[in-house]
What we know:
Blueprint: E1 5-7, E2 13-17, H1 20-23, H2 31-36, H3 59-68, E3 73-77, H4 80-83, H5 92-107, E4 111-117, H6 123-128, H7 136-151, E5 157-162, H8 164-173, H9 187-208, E6 213-225, H10 231-254, E7 256-259, E8 262-265, E9 275-286, E10 307-308, E11 315-316, H11 318-329, E12 335-339, H12 350-366, E13 371-376, E14 396-399, E15 404-407, H13 409-420, E16 422-424, H14 425-431, H15 436-439, H16 444-447
Helix pairs in contact: 7-9, 8-9, 8-10, 11-12
Amino acid sequence: MTRARYQFPKDFLWGTATASHQVEGGNTNNDWWHWEQQADRILHGHRSNEACGWWQGKWTEDLDRAQETYQNSHRLSIEWSRIEPHPAVWDETALERYRGMLQGMLDRGIEPMVTLVHFSHPQWFIEKGGWLLDQSVELFERYVRKSVVALGDLVKKWVTINEPNVYIYSGFVEGAFPPGLTDLRKVPIVTRNLLKAHAVAYEAIHEILPEAQVGLAHHYRSFVPADSGNILDRTVTSFRHRAFNNVFPEALRTGKMKMLHWRESLPEIVGTQDFFGLNYYTRETVDVDISKPGQILRTGDYPEGADVSPTGFIANVPEGFWEALQWAHDDDLPIYITENGVEDTDDHIRSRFLAGHIRELWRAANFNWKIKGYYHWTLVDNFEWERGWTQRFGLWGLDPKTQARKKRPTADFYAEICKMNGLSSEVVAQYAPEILDQIFPPRRSDDLGA
């Protein structure tokens, strides 16, 4: 067996990521809680309920697990609806509870990265019109300023908005997220307001905390034509890449928003990222059926023979991750992998998924690209939005009824990666032996048995 190690730069951050509504429980004042109460919104009628019990204090034991497995950072989100339960009415107790969580991380040697909005919003904000409202930018800035003043002494790294492209597609095209619309006419309006809100938040954070690092978590989905020789497959693949992946980073780079037939100049948003947050999960193929033009925006299939997760939600395609890293590198900013993971209740695919993706990450770091950290999704099983409790992404399993946790083998694998700040052939041989020769190709002498 080849004995080798892929080493990462000094001070690299290794952690996990969570989101407030998915782990806290009892977020009764936000749009997702209201969404859950409606029939047929969540798979099998599941509800978040107590979630992972973080609001009741379970965060302490989960952060102990993170510390015990050598993680040195954690990305979490704070809940706008807790901090501002009514317009311009602040819950100082909620802010103190978040201070406790953040201080708890620091006490464990875990650096926090805080996301200000991760899909969930105050119900009052949605009732006013949400991100369709021009005033939404001003309302978001008010919340940002209050939160950063209250928590800023404990936090250096901030993500303004998580995956705005996913939020727009799911909430305004597909209708699977609140507000549940399927209206392409609304998409440019929401896009513009989210871009402006990010930029306003960036400026506000730097005004309060000049040394802060501020970014946005971009979701990249790899699209490839099912038939590279088919011009329709290639054309729609290119369209989907531009429409889904490129709108936000291109606008932030150039100040030009290009969305469908909408063109708008937003020079004030240029240069409002100190780092590039990258979320990557999978690749999909685009197979155009000319008889069904209305399905051009539908989710595609996976590459033939792909290593697919138990519910078919994710295909294990590390090559797509490399593509995503190249795409993010074009902005020439420090890059944090703010999410990457796979749903896998029985932990059959997770270890090889992790090994393959960490190797691609090392390739980028080895090219001296500005790769600064990796946050695995996720620490413990949580409420997965419209899919409820049907998908398990956690390094620790969770029984939401009893709140019992159970460590999965990949938690120990990830601990070894975090501990050595790298990936070794010995550890891959232990946890993902089926792909050892892919991750560490044998030398000719190894093939000869030397």
